[in-house]
Design goal:
It contains one helix and 26 strands. With 310 residues, the protein is mainly beta. It has a single domain, classed as Jelly Rolls (Sandwich), CATH 2.60.120.10. A seven-stranded antiparallel β-sheet has the order 1-22-19-24-17-14-13, with no helix packed on it. A seven-stranded antiparallel β-sheet has the order 2-3-4-11-6-9-12, with no helix packed on it. Strand 2 and strand 3 form a beta hairpin. It is globular and about 55 Å long.
Length: 310
């Protein structure tokens, strides 16, 4: 379900780090984007907001029938981690470091690109129901973004009881409950299964946060948020009250504001156009940076960049 980032999502230039040091509520619509045969709701990046902490990409897909086709052929990444989380369905992950891993609801796939990795995402061939989930990217900091690639799968994740909600900690920690998943910057990814009522989520006040509703509707600061929107919450909150009239599902993202501006294009997260050009050239020329992926699907060609269209 990953990428690509297009000119509709961001400008070609690196974006400055946002500076919202107080609680706020900005609800902005996601943009409908095409990923292979699937339509997704792209909540991040936005032209006016590229990151929430280190989270820099969020594609919400479904629920949609898998008969529409979920196969995405081998494609490259640099400078980011992909975080795949399913509410319904199954996917099969293959990558250039030899990983082959099915993922189902409640499980987490986390791939670290570092200097460069390629992967493919495919249907398992057995499942024929709906697909519903989200794929996220996390920008890697300077200290790890040139490291070798890695992959990890977590079949179970810790949960925290929040009254009228059960939180599953994908990344980071909530109220002393910590995920085993790797994180290169301080941050949080929390899946919330809400029942009718108000749940209060403890927050780290040095983080900025955002909420993506996956199913149903959730009231935040008196404003109802539904699927297809990003609710940016700013910084300096030590708790968040979420009210649902009926069962709902939401994802809370947060983290320390990212250390530097980033340049995003296609499937790459970098700092400069030159870095993106080098990664693109390595992919197109079958360079050593991106080893082959064991997949029956065709390799995805890189599009021209807007700053070098030919």
């Amino acid at each position: 379900m990953s990428g690509p980032v297009r000119t509709e999502d961001v400008t070609a230039e690196p974006a400055p780090v946002d500076d919202v040091t107080h609680p706020t509520l900005e609800v902005t619509p996601s943009r409908v984007s095409q990923v292979g045969a699937l339509q997704v709701r792209r909540a991040l990046p936005r032209r006016n907001r590229r990151t929430v902490g280190a989270w820099c990409f969020a594609d919400h897909v479904g629920p949609v029938a898998t008969d529409l086709g979920v196969d995405i052929g081998p494609h490259p990444h640099v400078g980011l981690q992909t975080v795949t989380w399913l509410v319904a369905g199954e996917l099969l992950h293959h990558d250039s470091i030899g990983s082959e891993q099915e993922i189902r609801p409640g499980q987490l796939n986390l791939m670290t690109a570092g200097h460069g990795v390629a992967h493919a995402e495919e249907a398992t061939g057995r499942y024929h129901g709906d697909l519903h989930g989200i794929q996220l990217w996390v920008a890697q900091p300077e200290r790890t973004r040139h490291d070798p690639p890695a992959f990890e799968h977590h079949p179970e994740l810790p949960r925290v009881d929040l009254g009228t909600a059960i939180g599953t900690v994908l990344v980071g920690s909530v109220d002393g409950t910590r995920s085993p998943a790797r994180h290169d910057t301080d941050g949080i990814g929390l899946d919330l299964a809400l029942r009718a009522g108000t749940a209060v989520v403890p927050l780290e006040p040095t983080f900025e946060h955002a909420l993506i509703v996956l199913d149903g509707s959730v009231a935040v600061d008196g404003t109802v948020v539904e699927p297809g929107n990003l609710a940016y919450l700013g910084e300096a909150r030590d708790e968040l009250a979420l009210t649902a009239r009926e069962p709902a599902r939401a994802l809370l993202l947060g983290g320390v504001p990212f250390e530097s501006p980033i340049s995003m294009w296609w499937n790459f997260v970098a700092r400069t156009h030159d870095e993106i050009d080098a990664a693109r050239a390595d992919w197109e020329t079958h360079g050593e940076r991106f080893a082959d992926v064991v997949s029956a699907l065709g390799r995805v060609p890189a599009p021209p960049t807007p700053w070098r269209p030919t």
